[in-house]
Amino acid sequence: MPVRRAAAACFGLPRRLLSTSASPPRLLGHFHHPGMTKDIAGRIMCPTRTAPGVRFEPLAAAAAAEPRLSLDYLPFDPARGFSLYDSHLGLLLLRQPTALGSPAFLVCDPVSRRHALVPPLPKKAITGDSEFFGPALLSRGPGARFEFDAVCVTVDARRPRAWVTSFRGDGCRWEALPRSRDVEIDFDPVWVEQRCVHAAGSLYWHICGSHSVLAMDMATMKFSYMRLPAPVWDDFSHAKCRVGETPDGRLCVGALEHKKLRLCVRRPGSHGGWVLEREMNLSSELDAVPGLPEKMLRHNYYYSYWLSDIDAGRTGRVFIRTLGCGRFSYDMDTGSLMRLMTDDGLEYGDPILAYFAPPDGSID
Question: Which of 26, 121, 181, 357 is most exposed, with the fewest beta carbons within 10 Å of its own?
Answer without folding.
Answer: 181
